Amino acid sequence: MHLQNQQNLRSSWAKLIKDSRTALFLWSLLLSASVLTHTIDIPSGHVTCFFEDLHVDDKMTITFQVAGGGHLDIDFWLNDPQGNHLWNVIKRDTGTFTFTATQGGKHEYCFSNAMSTVSSKTVSFNVHGVMYVEDDAKMLPIELEIKHLASALEAVKEEQQYIVVREKLHRNTAESTNDRVKWWSLVQTAMVLGVTAWQVFYLKRFFEVKRAI
Fold first, then answer.
1. Assigned fold of 2-169
2. Start and end of every GOLD domain (predicted)?
3. Alpha carbon separation from 124 to 12, 194, 212 (Å, rounded)
4. Among residues 74, 78, 103, 146, which one has the fewest Cβ atoms lying within 10 Å of its Cβ?
């Protein structure tokens, strides 16, 4: 009886540790899914780069959006550890790229504002959907399901953040257009007042000359 109680106690502790591990894993994934979009300012003529260390067959998605500056465009490229271009776009305001690593090592992705000589650019971006294959082999089935769920939640959050950035961009464009219309209206009003004043002055001068004659 005593031996059976010890076995039951060990089994209970093992189940508790397993459940705690699963709960901790879920909590860490949910925390990782709540990471905010990164926002950086890139001065004119500068290039800003980041690195992501991946294994073979790891998957990753990169999303970016130019939120302000100049013509709202940026150059972007993603290189493998050998320096080969996996993705290269020029003068884009937004972009999304998903890829599977074919070799392990540091993958570099860069935002370039080198084409601009005056305007700095504000870029919002995020790296999400990273799935490390080597880690998957060590996970329990429920942990894999939790990981996929967290990845789906993160994708939804990224889409929401993308919509927020687009809304901000459209709002800035609308405000800029309203400012231009306002100033152009003021200029037109000033021109009309100027022409009116000149006509009044001219007519007054004209009648004064005729009266003198």
1. Jelly Rolls (2.60.120)
2. 47-129
3. 48, 46, 73
4. 103
